[in-house]
Amino acid sequence: MRTFIIQILMNAVAVFGASYLLRGIHVRDFKYAIIVALVLSLLNTFIKPAMVFFSFPITILTLGLFLLVVNAAIIKIAAWLIGDGFRVDGWWWAIAFSIVITILNSILEWILG
Length: 113
Hints:
Layout: H1 2-21, E1 25-27, H2 30-46, H3 48-54, H4 56-61, H5 66-82, E2 86-88, H6 91-112
Antiparallel strand pairs: 1-2
Helix pairs in contact: 1-2, 1-6, 2-5, 5-6
């Protein structure tokens, strides 16, 4: 349980940091960053596996690049579910947000061990 909470807080820091780096991503405050991290965690656990399964043929054809679109779709769904506290201006911003969050999470994992 403790590692789950730490992981959510690290993701929230990455979400908040990405919102400062990307002008197309809008997070109202850190409370909403925690909510975004929780919603993304739930969507990645329950919805993303089905999306990856059904998009497997196109993922193979694009040599894995379609997974960026799947990640962007998860982020757009999260923005739709959360509402006013988290907004993504477009699909390109969602793809960039996905990449930046991955990089920031990797850096945080490296720093915190």
